[in-house]
Amino acid sequence: MKHLIAPSILAADFTRLADEFAMVNESEADWFHLDVMDGRFVPNITFGMFIVAAMKKMAQKPLDVHLMIVEPERYVESFREAGADVISVHYEACPHLHRVVHQIKDSGAKAGVALNPHTPVSVLEDLLDDIDLVCLMSVNPGFGGQKFIYRTIPKIRQLKEMIEAANASILIEVDGGVAQHNAESLLRAGADVLVAGSSVFKAPDPQNAIHQLKALEPIRSF
Ligand code: DX5
Ligand code: ZN
Fold first, then answer.
1. What is the pLDDT of residue 199?
2. Is 147 a residue whose pLDDT tops 80?
3. Mutation pick for ligand 1 pocket among 35, 41, 92 (CB with most ligand atoms within 8 Å)
């Protein structure tokens, strides 16, 4: 499968959001990545379901909603109703993760689990039959524009091996500090979805930045 590109709206110009959505609609991007932050799980606050519902009206591509919030089980159905196609919750925020994953699937969305940089991929061993996507954080969640953490690359490789050994069908998404200079190594390690905020929206030509990420043709290294 050709890898997917999910521009992160966090880095967009919110004074001209409709133009930014139109730019992504007309680009080679595959999904919109929407970062929901609550000021509790992460220090920052972004937007909630009302804004996601407005974004749904502007988006012509699936919405990949990354919930960086405590107790995400309280809001799964609201985000689904707002138009989320993929909903990811954090492993670190969910003591009853198996239940939340099935709650997401029952809502009709694809279920993702996000892992902070310090969380090993092995914690997902017993969920491989249940989830549709793993979002590996390659920065500490909370802010755009941070430096990529290189330790993520062996984690991608390890997760890919786990998924293949279990014969599961799970997308590996990498989120944080993704740019042209590291994207190829991420794909080679086994990434399926690249989230890119600053490297797309702060580029002089965002559609071309998306094109460059999409055009990579990596050969898997193992
Ligand atoms: C960080 C968010 C990311 C962020 C990525 O908490 O989950 O999606 O927007 O932004 P860049 O690509 O600028 O690191
Ligand atoms: Zn994100």
1. 98
2. yes
3. 35
- In the chain, DSSP finds a helix count (H) and a strand count (E) of 8, 8
176 to 22, 55, 185, 194: CA distances (angstroms): 23, 21, 14, 9
Within 6 Å (CB) of ligand 1, which residues are found?
8, 10-11, 33, 35, 66, 139, 141-142, 144-146, 175-178, 195-199
Pairing of strands 110-115, 86-90: parallel
Residues recorded for the chain:
222
- Give the chain's mean pLDDT: 97
Residues 134-145 as b or e (16 or more Cβ within 10 Å = b): bbbbbbebbebe
Nearest alpha carbon, ligand 1 atom 4: 144
% of the chain surpassing 90 pLDDT:
97
